[in-house]
Amino acid sequence: MGPMVKRQLSADQILATGLRNQWYAICPSDMVPQGGVHRVRRLGIDWVLFRESDGTLRMLEDRCPHRGAPLSQGQHLGSKIACAYHGVQVDGTGKVVSVPGLPGCNLEGKTLVPSPPLQELGGAILAYIGDEQHPDPAPVALPDPLVDEEISSFLCYAEWDTPWRYAMENLLDPMHGAFLHRESHSMFGGDTEARFRIRETDRGFFFEKTDQRGVNFDWVEFCRTGIDWVDLSIPYPPTAGPGGSFGIVGMGTPIDEHTTAVFFWRYRKVSGWERDVWRFLYRTKLEARHWHVLEQDRVMLEAMAEDADQAENLYQHDLGVVRLRRLYKKLAEEQAAGLAPSPSPESVPAGRA
After folding, report:
1. Which of 132, 151, 157, 200 has the largest count of CB atoms under 10 Å?
2. What single DSSP character describes residue 286?
3. Burial of 94 (0-12, 13-18, 19+ CB in 10 A)
4. What residue spans carry the region label Disordered (predicted)?
């Protein structure tokens, strides 16, 4: 990848805008058209994405190395972008390939623009965002449900006007399903009282009810495998077609300290005609219901004050939230001190890289 722009961030700034030295979901793949460019803001940084003539996907910091003008306003030239301000051409690796105003100047041939490693998964673009000490991509184990060929999924993408920490903590709070989503088609059942426990895994931890399973939003697994994601399962009524319960892989990516890009893959393990039925039902009936549930989360989180977590009174149901906060605070402090390495290969579960 290209050089990282020097940014000395405090632990609080890292917590607000996102941990570095790991992979993130950036945007749906179809947002980057062939022959065009797409501008996004992620982790408090502006980026431009484009596809080269052969379809190769590229992502550059949206900053011309000459005067800092946005490359996203420039011209797509197949394998490079020409800045609209002075015509400086930058290729997909971040290298300056031409300075039309002064051919042969010392900018040419230098790699001056950060260009993160990318891959596409489940209809989304993933990028590794490192810091100066850790520019090379960390080992990554992609979510199992998104690489299993027997599993069919749909990506739901949205941008919420809420801090990243609230979006992630919402996923580690299964009990809200029995209250906020109690009138939904999939979370109407079960008791409104529960006890929870944390159960360690080789890639993170489960936060789960000890006295109920397969009735409501009864468990969630937080996975840290070079990319942070959660896996959970919610029961489906028979009217939802074949396949049993449906699963969700969820990710949250900070846009800045105030807003978050959320990614939810709804999935079921189905094949043959059952797969066709499930996909048909999803598009014609279930998708609207799922968006209704997501809207309930969005409205609640966007209505919360940004300092709401400074005056809380937590109880046993919040153990998953507390665990996540402690983990992220520790990592942010290490990264602010320049101590946090990229995940080692040993930290990625075997067989999933």
Report:
1. 151
2. I
3. buried
4. 334-353
pLDDT digits (tens, 9 = 90+) for 218-259: 778 999 999 999 998 877 777 777 877 888 999 999 999 999
Q: Which CATH class is domain 144-336?
A: alpha beta
Whether 286 and 186 have beta carbons less than 8 Å apart is answered as: no
* Residue 95 in this model has a pLDDT that exceeds 70: yes
Instruction: Measure the CA–CA gap between 4 and 113, rounded to whole angstroms.
Output: 8
Residue type, 57: L
Kindly state the helix (H) or strand (E) to which residue 220 belongs, with its residue range: strand 219-224
Spatial separation of the C-alpha atoms in residues 20 and 142, rounded to whole Å: 17
**Do the beta carbons of residue 69 and residue 60 sit within 8 Å?**
no
What does each C-alpha distance from 213 to 218, 287, 347 come to in angstroms? 6, 24, 29
Sole residue written with tokens 């002064």:
102
Domain range 22-129, its CATH number among 3.40.50.10700, 2.102.10.10, 3.90.180.10, 1.10.760.10? 2.102.10.10
Question: What pTM did the predictor assign?
Answer: 0.91
Residue 72 pairs in a beta bridge with: none
Range 35-42 contact pairs with CB under 8 angstroms and sequence separation of 24 or more? 35/76, 36/76, 37/71, 37/72, 37/74, 37/76, 37/81, 38/72, 39/70, 39/72, 40/255, 41/255, 41/256, 42/18, 42/127, 42/129, 42/253, 42/254, 42/255, 42/261
Question: What residues contact residue 346 under an 8 Å CB cut-off, 6+ apart?
Answer: none
Q: What is the pLDDT of residues 120-173, one digit of tens each?
A: 999 999 999 998 888 899 899 999 999 998 999 999 999 999 999 999 999 998
Measured distance CA(21)–CA(130) in Å, rounded: 4
Domain boundaries, the chain: 22-129, 144-336
For residue 303, pLDDT over 80 is answered with: yes
CA distances from 291 to 174, 181, 234, 282, 316 (A): 18, 12, 15, 11, 29
Distances (CA, A) of 127 to 115, 118, 158, 234: 9, 5, 18, 29
Would you call 37 helix, strand, or coil by DSSP?
Answer: strand
Q: Which one-letter DSSP state was computed for residue 238?
A: G
Q: Which of 126, 41, 37, 133 is nearest to 81 (CA)?
A: 37
